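Translate structure to sequence.
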């Protein structure tokens, strides 16, 4: 599943490609990808709007819309496990499993495809979508000024869950997933199986620094293309080439040489070094 660095990369690409563009028409090939509102209303309300701003919140892309200069809600996109966004000319063959296409006023189309259909598309004011329960309330953004060591302390100090389970919970820190939690724990020297309430202050501070550093490096490398992820231009990221532990179980630790171990934590395959991580 695309995580924060991959979604951030796509959101930045979208800003260069569609910011300021108007949606002239909408073709909805699979109505079930729209979680809110009803498909007919979705098409009517999206048509004629303009992309005024594009941001990321956790693993969601938030496109703020305007109509005739006035706020017209948000188009919110979640890529799920296999979702892709493309900007293409109409004559270009659509990607398989394309479910939604928006005709823009520069003769391009913004298309959304999702083979496994775990993604979602929503339209409406963000606050209203959260109140309706169709959009989850998310925790602190790890790349924001609000993400301080104290903010992470508030997530970790008073729970008996494992470190990995706590960091995967989007209600605490938004945007982290399996790949980067493993990498963050390795960078911090903390085992993902450790119980949060037993972490020292120094370990919590190390995790805070590792979150910022690991995510920043992954964004600079345009994400990790391990399975299906591609950017808006269908290019792979390169961060998979420098992952330290994820996907390397049974290989030597790049820091100490010990064999990396694999276990299940919070139902997710988890790789760590029993020597470097305590």
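Result:
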């Amino acid at each position: 599943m695309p995580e924060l660095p991959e979604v951030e990369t796509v959101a930045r690409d979208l800003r260069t490609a569609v910011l300021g563009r108007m949606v002239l028409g909408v073709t909805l090939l699979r109505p079930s990808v729209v979680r809110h509102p009803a498909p007919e209303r979705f098409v009517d309300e999206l048509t004629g709007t303009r992309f005024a701003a594009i941001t990321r919140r956790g693993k969601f892309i938030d496109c703020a819309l305007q109509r005739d200069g006035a706020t017209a809600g948000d188009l919110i996109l979640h890529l799920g496990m296999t979702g892709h966004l493309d900007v293409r000319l109409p004559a270009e063959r659509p990607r398989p499993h394309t479910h939604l296409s928006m005709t823009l006023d520069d003769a391009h189309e913004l298309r959304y495809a999702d083979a496994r259909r775990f993604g979602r598309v929503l339209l409406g004011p963000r606050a209203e979508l959260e109140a309706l329960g169709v959009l989850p309330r998310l925790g602190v953004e790890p790349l924001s000024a609000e993400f301080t060591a104290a903010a992470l302390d508030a997530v970790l100090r008073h729970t008996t869950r494992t470190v990995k389970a706590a960091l995967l919970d989007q209600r605490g820190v938004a945007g982290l997933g399996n790949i980067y939690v493993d990498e963050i724990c390795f960078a911090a020297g903390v085992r993902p199986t450790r119980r949060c309430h037993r972490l020292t202050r120094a370990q919590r501070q190390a995790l805070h620094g590792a979150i910022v550093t690991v995510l920043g490096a992954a964004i600079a490398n345009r994400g990790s293309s391990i399975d299906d992820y591609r950017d808006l231009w269908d290019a792979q990221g390169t961060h998979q080439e420098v992952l330290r532990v994820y996907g390397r179980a049974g290989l030597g630790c790049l820091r100490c040489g010990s064999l990396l171990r694999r276990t299940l934590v919070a139902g997710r395959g988890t790789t760590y070094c029993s020597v470097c991580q305590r």
